[in-house]
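Practice problem 4.
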């Protein structure tokens, strides 16, 4: 009976088949990430691409929210993650004399229902004007719309 081929990695014995399967899974995941990234629009002009946070399916008291409530909470979000910025965002020194209000990777507070809303792979994104950012926030979980 043939034993599966083994290789040694950092002192651990791993089968060649497992290592090949792991490499193939990594390649597929990278390919999916690239495919997803190619579908996300790149903002132009003074627009910011904002990703909205996932909405909790339960209330703080443990009650499961209705699907419509979850949807309403999502589209009415005042918090978003800056995914990308157009080349002209915050470029006007007369409108933004102290510099940009935010940068890529920041969580921001914006006006409710602001911007152009759209879905990419069932995730809601928005394109908002650079001047629509009200502030940045360290922990977006602490922010609730009133």
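Answer key:
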């Amino acid at each position: 009976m043939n034993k599966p081929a083994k290789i040694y990695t950092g002192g651990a014995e791993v089968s060649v088949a497992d290592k090949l399967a792991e490499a193939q899974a990594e390649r597929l995941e990278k390919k999916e990430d690239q495919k997803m990234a190619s579908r996300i629009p790149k903002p132009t002009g003074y627009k910011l691409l904002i990703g909205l946070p996932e909405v909790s399916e339960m209330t703080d008291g443990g009650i499961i929210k209705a699907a419509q409530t979850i949807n309403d909470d999502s589209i009415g979000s005042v918090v978003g993650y800056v995914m990308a910025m157009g080349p002209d965002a915050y470029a006007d020194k007369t409108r933004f004399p102290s510099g940009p209000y935010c940068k890529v990777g920041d969580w921001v507070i914006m006006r409710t229902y602001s911007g152009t809303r759209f879905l990419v792979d069932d995730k809601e994104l928005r394109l908002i004007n650079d001047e629509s950012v009200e502030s940045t926030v360290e922990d977006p979980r602490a922010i609730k719309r009133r």
